[in-house]
Amino acid sequence: MCxxxxxxxxxxxxxxxxxxxxxxxxxxxxxxxxxVAGPGFAVRKVxxxxxxxxxxxxxxxxxxxxxxxxxxxTHGRAEMRNAHPHVYEGVAVVHNGIIENHAELRAGLAxxxxxxxxxxxxEVIPHLIAAARARGAAPMEAVRETCGAxxxxxxxxxxxEDAPDHLVVARQGSPVMVARGEGxxxxxxxxxxxxxxxDEYTALEDGDIAELGREGVVIRNGAGSLANRDWQAxxxxxxxxxxxxxxxxxxxxxSAQAAALVRTDDALAARVLTPQIAAAERxxxxxxxxxxxxxxxxRAWIEELSGVPCDLEIASEYRTRNAPLSRGTVxxxxxxxxxxxxxxxxxxxxxxxxVPVVAVVNVAHxxxxxxxxxxxxxxAGREMGVAATKSFTCQLLALVxxxxxxxxxxxxxxxxxLARIETEIASLPAICTAAELLxxxxxxxxxxxxxxxxxxxxxxxxxxxxxxxxALKLKELSYIHAExxxxxxxxxxxxxxxxxxxxxxxxxxxxxxxxxxNAEEVRSRGAAVISLVGAxxxxxxxxxxxxxxxxxxxGLGLIFAQxxxxxxxxxxAAEALGCDVDRPRNLAKSVTxx
Length: 594
Ligand code: M6R
Known about the structure:
- The chain has 18 helices and 24 strands.
- By secondary structure, the chain is an alpha/beta fold.
- The mean pLDDT is 95.
């Protein structure tokens, strides 16, 4: 999380920096700040979003090199005093990552008389660099020496008061790009932020330190040797989809799902599995958040279609355990952004063990995509809303297609199954659109949940994972406490939560008769059962439901319809409670710290 950007180009850079920073706001929006070079530093910080920096860029911001930052708070509250850049004795720094040994470093510096102005882990960095400068180190050496003292993850950009036409950039663990153009150089967490300011970029590798000036970019690797890297054209981020008459991007993105599924299916048609991947004996699927729930939803489909056992792992947990890997393991990483820190860490682990990695990823230029053996793309398009919506259903589709491709490569798919799955896939866009038409009913359910201020989601098989996604979506958008359980688990404890009128959202589907029995159990304890079922189950769920939404589709199709339904319930609950649907509190679109 956090976005950093820096620019040196022979003109006043402040306005361009704020423009570039606005493009990084998806990485966090707790506070924003800018520092521009000489004479001295001009510094401005604001609580909240980057565009708040625009007012107040007066004549003192005329410098031709500068750095800027948009923050997602890790250490220190989301307050102005903790906004970056952090400045100390002629050194200004922006940082993305976490310095794990900051307390120890801070204590050492304090003992030497350093005084700190923030509660952040990041602030030790300019202090250490300034201390190295005071001992006579040149800018690059001071940064190298400082990096040697830091434990954790960082991408930093450093501006020196006494070298006002250069920037120094260093990376360990957190992604960062450096870029160059005619008389210009730049740094950014995401290269698309630099469109219009530089022509080509390259990703720094761990241990790299780069010096940026109008004459170009010099990169040295961890050993201090000059590094030659491949450069790629800087391109603008995909345009945000139109709001199309909706009041939030999130709602517009729910509506854009049908088109996104068509694009994704077209892109997948051209992909083939490598022989090594086709020969997989076991799949380990690793992801976080909604991407994890997409994987969880699709696991049974992948196993059924391919016959290959499929383990599901939470990235942040998997990376901390030394799980034994059986021969023939293929890893499947699922991520919208392709830069989630925990999932990337797992990718690094797999690479070190020579496990082939398939990346189901939406952002084509992301590190995960760059480092994968095979990219199995989603083409959801850009999601402006922080909550995953169209990227989630595109992941479901990509994962079904992966299971099908694997099964076909292994001769495990009969002609009959193939025909059935193809028919079901072809119907998905229309099913999403038809589910959206049920919005008035879903809105009234959202209002009931908002009034009760809690919800339990249950389901079986793939629908249990949709229940989990529904609870996540409701929590993140409306801040209503929501829990999800596999329906069969309820009586092992969570049923104690049920009180009179507790809203319980029941996702029907596979094994509906068993789910129905679980719904009866909560109803007989006073719960208000809200059923999201297909037409085939309407008759039996109707009598026990306080509300019932009869969704289009069966099998795969019903799951996609349920995904749309829980998205719409969450958006309307958030709106009923006056929440910022596109920018929920405490969140960021890309989770680039552990
Ligand atoms: O970019 P990724 O798919 O790797 O992100 C994973 C999660 O951070 C993400 O799905 C998160 O849970 C969303 N806010 C869900 O709406």
